[in-house]
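Archive entry: two folds, one per protein. Generate the first.
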Amino acid sequence: MTKEKKKEDIKEETPKTYTQADIDAYQTALDDAQAVAEQYLEDLQRERASFANYKRRVDQDNQLTAEIQLGKSINLFLPVVDDLERALKNQPEDMASKAWAEGIELILQKLRTAMAKLDVEVIDIKPGDDFDPTDQEALTHEESETYKDGQVIEVIQTGYKLKDRIIRPAAVRVAK
């Protein structure tokens, strides 16, 4: 009896027939849902792009801030480099001072090597080069028979740059 009872409980269902109006209503609902999903996808993609741009800008700002701070720190040591260069220019000629001068030159070389590792470069200017106000500061304008108007006569103080940023312009004498 249990088998017969189970058979009785199972009713054969006839497939439901859908009218064209039902199909059209379902199709409209599906189209609306797809339009909403596409809008959500576009919004998500736009937000992701916006966040990526924001992150890139923050990284650039942080890099720039770090470079500015590094430039300020290096500026603290530039007078020491200048003093060591002056000491080597004015070294005594006697042999007893030769070891002292070599020691000063070694210290200066170590400082320059450390600065080079931090991407600090000397602004290369020689007498006879044209004056460029973007990386040079004219301390004097003097008459000169040797140099033409606007040429550097002498570099008084070496200039330095950190990557592409000038951290100290070169101080020069300029011919007029």
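Generate the second and append.
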Amino acid sequence: MIDSLRGEIAEKAPGHAVVDCHGVGYLVHITASTCEDLPGRGPCKLFIHYAVSVDVRSGQSEHKLFGFINTEERHMFRQLIGVQGVSATLGLAILGARRADELRVAILNGEEGTLKSVKGIGPKLAQRIVGELRGKLSDEPVERVLAVAGGGGNTLRAEALSALVSLGLDRAKAERALQKVLAGHEGDPPPLEELIRTALKNL
């Protein structure tokens, strides 16, 4: 399993890059946003998703490397291709249209329109992606949410609200979700991580 590649950009074009690692050139499929973030030449590091597909008729296998500028983008790609109907090519297209943090917020908010704006995604597939991933993303470790948000505040409620708003969530909706969680704890609020996690589930 190849987890990451560190080397020199030998070639870069829309959709792919060639990374030279000690004389070996690796063809890596990339998103449009990753292409923008990579230098035209020089050192780089890509986090890799290694995929093998087998043709059932011929029995021939195809090996592909998909590269991402950070682990959050790779994680979102893996979540997307786990949804029936989302191919690796379509997963790259989605992340090329929306960065990983923006896509996370759109899914958590149930914004199917964000997905339908990507060529190749119709209403049913957009609904399936939101339906399957919304719960999974809200159940993820809050450390990942805080890493994306990086908010702060003077009180527990303010810190949680800041983190949710920094993620791009609607402020009024985030406040209602927080109020619902806090009301259920009757003056004994949960730790920050649990508060954010539960609020995300109540959006």
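Annotation attached to the second fold: Confidence is low (pLDDT under 50) at residues 147-154. The first strand starts at residue 4 and ends at 13.
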